[in-house]
Design goal:
Number of strands: 9
Number of helices: 1
Shape: elongated
CATH topology of one domain: Immunoglobulin-like
Distance between the termini: 86 Å
Helix content: under 10%
Low-confidence stretches: 18-77
Strand order of the largest sheet: 1-3-9-8-5
Radius of gyration: 21 Å
Length: 185
Amino acid sequence: MRRTTHTRTIALTALTLLLAAGCGTQGGSEAGGGRTVSPTGAPSSPPSPGSASPTPPASPTSPTSSASPASPPPSSDQDCTTVKGMLDAADTGHTYCLVAGDTLRVTLDGTTPRPWKPVKSDGGNLEPTNGGIVLQPGDAAAAYRAVSAGTVRLTSSRPMCPSDPGRISCKGLQEWTVTVVVTKA
């Protein structure tokens, strides 16, 4: 009669836990995925014991602030950077200024197992235009022309880990959000 041991069960459980824990981490070897991204664009720190975690106030540059197509152009003291013409995955969480009539291109480098969703715009201040870019599998690209003054959020997301058939998968998403403030020429 064969003697029953728990070694295999323990080893299998440990392997499963290690695989599940590793799913949320990213390696720097994939294009466009070498950085850890927080939903607010700022590093997060755990709350100290015994204290309630305060909700951070929404700022004009925060991607969580509401943006509407009819929002007014920024005042001169608003913190935004002039768009350099092309945005990528590293620009997430920032606010950029664009003059009406200018063109903005977005290129998010993904991979086949971790593809970016198409870039979405939440307002009518940017008009989609032909990006003229050949995409690799998993990439997302978009081009917009600024047509009127206001604030617009551009968003996309992709899975944190690949979803291979027959394997454990996580449901985490890497968010990409940029706020674009369009001013009159």
